[in-house]
């Protein structure tokens, strides 16, 4: 698995405000979108393109165009939804799938409760949006779900990651031929006994949408 930890003062600055417990939901949502746009820029460094030529008012120029099939972006509900707008702003032509996953707070095990995805993901570049890579359970389950639909090229975009989650992800796909990449805004210290990232930012879903 390739890992890219964003090392950019602008991302770290925005992350600092996001972490602050005093930051309200509207600001949290806006900052999440901004951070995801910046992370998506990094994540799409290897997006597939083909050469094309265009005529400028002055001369012919060589350029590139994104190839088909279009990339697929899959936010994991509910917190991943807060990342979708930031991703789509960068690449509005990406197709959007949805995966509803819930973590049992006692066992920390993830289960799928809803999905809307293309039937065939072979040959598609897939981008999973999940703000917090904590125990890794949700992301491993989501990646396996996409693999069952033929996906071979998956990039996970997470705002924060814990070393424990990164290790779980690495172990789960160590012997797989899957092209897997993780792009994250920061690698934090650890998980606490409740499975929260430390120092983290708390419950991303609650901070985006309120406690319901
Ligand atoms: N999910 C969250 O929203 N926050 C964490 O710290 C861990 C998992």
Explain what this protein looks like in three dimensions:
By secondary structure, the protein is α/β, with parallel strands linked by helices. The protein has a single domain (2-209), classed as Rossmann fold (3-Layer(aba) Sandwich), CATH 3.40.50. It contains six helices and 13 strands. The protein has helices at residues 9-19, 25-43, 81-90, 137-148, 163-172, 204-209, and strands at residues 2-5, 49-55, 60-66, 72-77, 95-96, 98-103, 110-116, 125-129, 132-133, 153-161, 179-187, 190-191, 197-198. Strands 1, 4, 5, 6, 7, 8, 9, 10 and 11 form a nine-stranded mixed sheet that branches. A two-stranded antiparallel ribbon has the order 2-3. Strands 12-13 form a two-stranded antiparallel sheet. Strand 4, helix 3 and strand 5 form a beta-alpha-beta unit. Helix 2 packs across helix 3. The termini are far apart. The mean pLDDT is 95. The structure holds uracil (URA). Uracil is lined by residues 79, 132, 134, 195-197, 200, 203-205.
* Bound molecule kinds, no repeats: uracil
**Ends distance:** 35 Å
Q: What's the mean pLDDT score?
A: 95
Structural class: alpha/beta
CATH topology description: Rossmann fold
Shape, per Cα inertia axes: globular
What characterizes the major β-sheet?
Answer: 9 strands, mixed
Number of helices: 6
CATH architecture: 3-Layer(aba) Sandwich
Supply the number of structural domains: 1
Which percent range describes the beta-strand content?
25-35%
The proportion of residues forming helix, as a percent range, comes to: 25-40%
Q: Which CATH first-tier class would you pick? A: Alpha Beta
Order of helices and strands: EHHEEEHEEEEEHEHEEEH
Strands, count: 13
Uncertain spans: none
Output the radius of gyration: 18 Å
